[in-house]
Amino acid sequence: MRIWCSLFGFIGLSISVLGQNLVPNPSFEANPTLLCLPAMTVDFNRSLKHWNTPTQGSPDVISSKVDKSCKVHPKNHTIGLTPHDGKTMVGTVAYHSDDSREYLQCQLTEALVPGQRYTFSVWVARRYACNTASGSLGPLLTTNPISEDLETQLALSPQVRFDRMIESHKLWIKLTAEFEADAAHQYLVIGNFATNANTPTQ
User: Fold this and answer.
1) Rounded Cα gap, residues 176 and 158, in angstroms
2) How far, in Å, CA of 8 to CA of 33, rounded?
3) What backbone torsions phi and psi does residue 186 show, to the nearest 5 degrees?
4) What's the N-to-C CA distance of the chain in angstroms?
5) In whole angstroms, what is the distance from residue 109 CA to residue 112 CA?
6) pTM to 2 decimals?
């Protein structure tokens, strides 16, 4: 059994000057299909509007919109930590001894403009049951969607890599960075693209 270690609460990708968020459904509140149990890959892909997973990993949608008896209710995954914005958050495997990884993917509301500066920000936390804190989360911007038949690391280089450890399971941590678009990217993939050997852990 793999225990996911990262909680995503809100994701933003904005034009530095205008502050317009290009990430659709950034706080995961548009969720037409919520299950009571952790989802399989196909279930996750239909649980959140605009979001999917580019691999065979299966992130979990955790929401207080479901009954408290459901395994995906926040009270069964956190100790007092509520979704950062709204009633829903997503849990992924960012690090595991068997190299397992889970990623989130969406199509941006508009393509990036080469040469334009953008700000990426995300609110993250660690699940209390995960006894290893890790870093290396980051955003990968691509011109085409990714679809890989694997459950391990995507051997790709994100535009930004945050080495800060996701230690807290009681408070949300904001990771933010600015970068310059090098192409008219339309898709955003978030996760840990580093190997276990290159992932800082504690």
Assistant:
1) 14
2) 18
3) -120, -10
4) 21
5) 9
6) 0.92
